[in-house]
């Protein structure tokens, strides 16, 4: 079988310094293995054995809950059924009810807008911060790096608590500053009392915590750009915009794509920030899909319904990221 | 290269403003934690604690089971980090270095697995745990946290392993080292930044996790610090001093680990993913 002998390290075409006699390394390796046929069989199983623990973990710890979740989504499962261990199948009833419910579509739309706004802000501001890091002198760069690290490392629940304190209606420092700046109606403003202002706080929190990751990644990426490229482009009289589009952007593109992909996943899934700031309120107006699934399922004890929402959430997330997934798979194909 | 005065001032001025924006919430957390009540509930903010006190920290630590929760959090977090590193390392090596049937499928599997919205699967996980007597235990929690960080860890480490020139490994093997020895002596040291950034990611994910432990472990003896922090807020209402002291205590281990490792880790996570 061809698979069994395909071990990457001896890939033909790799130049080798010690290869005396002009023998292609691939052949040499092949012959070495031919002398020991027993080894050949074991090599074929090696990759699968190495992957086995990760695969078992994925099947048991993720696959099983996912399948279970899928099954629950076809059941009428509320508090009573849960306690009495009853299984009441109700077909696609949960999905039918959800998809014909205007509320679900509102929440889905809200989730998408929330994700687009946050990802855009994070990517634009994070990239600018990363480029800024690259332009700074040594000392200022270290100072800003430490500041970014502090925000990045703040545990989410801790950060959420701190933001609640910053935006507290009484004695909160934000309201005091706004009042001092002359916006007196903000003196005792209740930030979690309105849909928009609650989202504002949540967005600020998410953007504040996500910028460092993007900035550090992009800064690291700029360090891989050869300085000569800039010199050459400048000689040709390229302006700042031209430099960005001909030199910087092509180098940063893969990093931007990978980071955007992670940000879409992380932000679309954000739960703790929204839930902890105001539990999806006021009046359930800041529920995004994950929060909606949790409130409907765990909070209102419509477990089957919650499971159906979560399945739809997963499908939407897959659709959102399918472009990047396809791109990566194509890249993978080219490599083989 | 010559830059105009304005060209030098702008970046630095922006950097100063950004520094303040990013540091202030963290500073405000610590400073509130050390303030006496009068300084906290003041109509004009008190920017520095006038008479620093440890009273808030005392209130925070005196909560029931505090030290048990600290221990639980460390056990679960460290366990998940080590376990995921080990399992991911094996898988990443196979995906980076060996060509075999189904490799693309495995890569896709991990890419999709990393998207799993755990928060919305808590009901299913609860039922599984309940039916197999796994409630109120630390081991299932550790295993689930391991799984939460495993996919990204695999993909990142794979990128780092792929970036190590094959010649290096081969040279070691020609010198008589076994494949295992070549891996330990040659590849492993070059993976340090990847290992560190993935362990940081694992550390912060497990340390923070909240919905799953909330549902699975109702028993206070088996809970972790995020539950303490959130219950603390409910119990003490607007006692911001104590709440900020609790948040500080919760944040300190992560802040310390990040500040120590940050410069070695910068850019590690996507660098690994991109190189792959």
Strand content of chain B: under 5%
Distance between the terminal alpha carbons of chain B, to the nearest Å? 36 Å
Radius of gyration of chain A (Å): 27 Å
* Count of alpha and pi helical runs of chain B: 14
- Helical percentage of chain A: over 70%
Residues in β-strands, percent of chain A: under 5%
Q: What best-fitting shape of chain A do the alpha-carbon axes yield?
A: globular
Order of helices and strands of chain A: HHHHHHHHHHHHHHH
What is the third-level CATH name, the topology of chain A?
A: MetI-like fold
Q: What class, by secondary structure content of chain B?
A: mainly alpha
Task: List low-confidence stretches of chain A.
Answer: 1-42
Q: What count of structural domains of chain A?
A: 1
Q: How many structural domains does the protein architecture of chain B include?
A: 2
> Which homologous superfamily in CATH is the superfamily of chain A?
MetI-like
Determine the fraction of residues in helical runs of chain B and give it as a percent range: over 70%
Instruction: Return the average pLDDT of chain A rounded to an integer.
Output: 83
Region (Disordered) (chain A): 1-39
Domain ABC transmembrane type-1 (chain A): 108-324
Membrane topology (chain A): Multi-pass membrane protein
Subcellular location (chain A): Cell membrane
Question: Could you explain how this protein is built, in words?
Answer:
The complex is a heterodimer of chains A (336) and B (276). Helices cover 74% and strands 0% of the residues of chain A. Chain A is built from 15 helices and no strands. Chain A has helices at residues 2-5, 25-34, 37-72, 79-83, 93-99, 102-135, 138-153, 156-166, 173-180, 195-222, 227-235, 240-269, 272-278, 289-299, 303-335. In chain A, helix 6 crosses helix 12, helix 8 runs parallel beside helix 13 and helix 14 runs antiparallel to helix 15. Chain B is 76% helix and 0% strand. Chain B has helices spanning 5-33, 37-40, 55-61, 66-97, 103-113, 122-131, 138-163, 166-174, 179-190, 192-208, 211-216, 225-236, 240-265, 268-275. In chain B, 51% of the residues are buried. The mean pLDDT of chain B is 86.
